[in-house]
From TrEMBL, chains A, B:
This is Arginine biosynthesis bifunctional protein ArgJ. It comes from Heliobacterium mobile (Heliobacillus mobilis). GO terms for cellular component: cytoplasm. The record marks 116-117 as: Involved in the stabilization of negative charge on the oxyanion by the formation of the oxyanion hole. Belongs to the ArgJ family. Keywords: Acyltransferase, Amino-acid biosynthesis, Arginine biosynthesis, Autocatalytic cleavage, Cytoplasm, Multifunctional enzyme, Transferase. It is an enzyme of class 2 (transferase). It is found in: Cytoplasm. The active site is at residue 190. It holds the Pfam family ArgJ. Catalyzes two activities which are involved in the cyclic version of arginine biosynthesis: the synthesis of N-acetylglutamate from glutamate and acetyl-CoA as the acetyl donor, and of ornithine by transacetylation between N(2)-acetylornithine and glutamate. InterPro entries: Arg_biosynth_ArgJ, ArgJ-like_dom_sf, ArgJ_beta_C. It catalyses: L-glutamate + acetyl-CoA = N-acetyl-L-glutamate + CoA + H(+); N(2)-acetyl-L-ornithine + L-glutamate = N-acetyl-L-glutamate + L-ornithine. Pathway: Amino-acid biosynthesis; L-arginine biosynthesis; L-ornithine and N-acetyl-L-glutamate from L-glutamate and N(2)-acetyl-L-ornithine (cyclic): step 1/1; Amino-acid biosynthesis; L-arginine biosynthesis; N(2)-acetyl-L-ornithine from L-glutamate: step 1/4.
Length: 403, 403
């Protein structure tokens, strides 16, 4: 799949979208904690959700509303995940969509809702309802940037981008924003990603494209292996670019999917790079696998290995930990055919140590983006996975949040 | 299964065994790094090995020798794992058994070999062969304690124990020693466990008993989720207690298995407690599961969660991370029926937060042994898993070993 370049932009880059971000007081006063994305016209919608058996209330409400038809808005809050709140959580999530619908003068079923933050604590609904009022008046065609900051939790930087693709002679734009798997007081990682596009595309194809893009992006990153109750990726397609509608698979669908995939990978890498306490992005490329599943398993095992993540933090050319991780990954391969590279330095050949330059390998590990390549010599499939190093700060952030 | 008490003792506690530990110079001069266990008479042998696809040479040689019949000796070295050394690794491992056989005047096929330490580096065979000579002369009926120290890597304390069980009116003893999953320069965790017993038991039943005991002990601990290329648990049964031979399943077999299981759990917990950088032992009990597999999956997911391990280090009563971990564990359960306890403090009921005392929960987390209980209210099966907290020192040990 040929991936187009991702450039600066956000969810209000495509035509026909407005965005807003405000401080509702869910987090500390003055800290942005609520965002709203609105499409001027009903938009085809698709979403993917966490596989965690414990799913937050907003996910259930959003699933129902997407099943009911097109969406016009997405309301998001940070600071409270509205998870493990039982029946009350569902009531509160529904009320967020009802209030947003009132403010925008639309049907509540046209509103999706997402939350991230503390779990097991009731939502501060007074602040949230007042926040939704403020969001309505704050909507702007340039609101995508502030919206991207309003969904941040322990993220250090907002994560946005856009990509363009020509459909039937017309340029359509996909904009996106994501928040990372930084853990938030007092609870767990949440990954949220929101996309907007002015392309016209059938909902089932939009769903298929989103699912495909997620499989090679968000599903291939790991900060600490934990999977949250609130993860969600959602896309709205409003057709405002005036390009012909993508109603069947083919060149246009493939081009759109490639563009969405490029943006998803860019945002996913931004999440990994911004993992809590991380000082480096680790990219693991597994090549020469017998199947794509083998390549993915092997790549994920390496980016998930606490041993290897610690070694990267310490600039320790510890290729043995790579061998070990692919060994227990469940991937099929022949240990005696494996080559391992740290950056451009080959450290192992046919499963055995090479007498490589420690200095060069250490240099490769000192980069902001550390690339590990594993060649299995076992087939034609490959996969990439992204993660970050394991540092003192990761432990500090997750152990000492109270202090 | 009723488990008998584990008391002080080691691999030379059972009748008819001798042990030795010496400093062969594989590690720093004067540091114990080779051990030998010898049975006066041929002993039935059984072993379980790492599931890692990358398996160290000694494992392959030991498998062959156990398949060939009874064993009389086990030679072990620390400081070099003899993994990822290709054909040369196999030759070196075989030579270790040949040399040990020469020294003891026995058949090389009666010798098992195990290694732990650096991978991808050739074995220092001169030192090792000289070390085996020294081991022969150092053998003693009281050598079990020094042997247990000679297999340590980054372990802070030796791990030994013994348990007694009456078979046909005669008391038989099982002694054991293990080394933990401390990571060693520059490579990965290795778990080694060696048992001796003066019971008489058919090899196939010995294998079955060992496998059963490992499933609820070593297979239920996690220090950092990594699985080594060198893990091995091995048992020798020489019949010297003069008890009737256990040749079929039944009360005697069950009693023997319970005793071996009690010792295995004790040694496994000692390994978790001594995990690198660990300040606490975490015991996770999952009860009320629909199946044993569900209970095990849920328990392991919690002890493996970096988020929860960090929270325990920080005395953070972060029950939401427990909910999250069981949620992605793959276990089947109803999130709305889950109760969570930190120590004796119930923090969640039917999947929702309770208004518990933070002070009491924090106190429970400050203990040296933190017990987390998850009640699924979904069936009659339960499981326990053990791990340790994630600390700055874990990262330090695995990142900065060079400094």
């Amino acid at each position: 799949m040929q991936l187009p370049p991702v450039v600066q932009g956000n969810v209000t880059s495509p035509a026909g979208f407005q965005g807003a971000g405000i401080a509702a007081g869910i987090k500390k006063p003055g800290i942005l904690d609520m965002a709203l994305i609105v499409s001027e016209v009903p938009a085809a919608a698709a979403a993917v959700y966490t596989t965690n058996k414990v799913q937050a209330a907003p996910l259930q409400v959003t699933k129902e509303h997407i099943a009911a038809g097109p969406l016009k808005a997405v309301v998001v809050n940070a600071g409270n995940a509205n998870a493990c709140n039982g029946e009350r959580g569902l009531v509160d999530a529904r009320q967020m969509t009802v209030k947003t619908a009132e403010v925008l003068g639309i049907d509540a079923q046209a509103v999706a809702v997402a939350s991230t933050g503390v779990i097991g604590q009731p939502m501060p609904m007074e602040k949230i309802l007042a926040g939704i009022d403020s969001l309505g008046c704050a909507l702007s065609p340039d609101g995508g940037e502030v919206a991207s900051r309003a969904i941040m939790t322990t993220d250090l930087v907002p994560k946005t981008g856009k990509v363009e693709v020509v459909i039937g002679g017309k340029t359509v734009t996909i904009g996106g924003m994501a928040k990372g798997s930084g853990m938030i007081h007092p609870n767990m990682a949440t990954m949220l990603a929101f996309y907007t596009t002015d392309a016209a595309i059938a909902p089932e194809l939009l769903q298929k494209a989103l699912t495909r893009s997620v499989q090679v992006s968000y599903n291939m990153i790991s900060v600490d292996g934990d999977t949250s109750t609130n993860d969600m990726a959602l896309i709205l397609a409003n057709g405002c670019a005036g390009a012909p509608s993508i109603d069947s698979e083919g060149a246009d669908y493939e081009a759109f999917t490639a563009a969405l995939t490029a943006l998803s990978i860019e945002l996913a890498k931004a999440i990994a790079r911004d993992g809590e306490g991380a000082t480096k992005l680790i990219e693991v490329r597994v090549e020469g696998a017998a199947t794509e599943a083998d390549a993915k398993k092997a790549a994920m095992a390496v980016v998930k290995s606490s041993l290897f993540k610690s070694a990267v933090f310490g600039n320790d050319a510890n290729w043995g930990r790579v061998m070990c991780a692919i060994g227990y990954s469940g991937a099929n391969f022949d240990p005696n055919k494996v080559d391992v590279y740290l950056g451009s330095v080959q450290t192992a050949k046919q499963g055995m140590a090479l007498n490589f330059s420690e200095a060069e390998a250490t240099e490769a590990l000192k980069q902001k983006e550390v690339v590990v390549t594993v060649q299995l010599h076992d087939g034609d499939f490959s996969a990439a996975a992204w993660g970050c190093d394991l540092t003192y700060d990761y432990v500090k952030i997750n152990a000492d949040y109270r202090s």
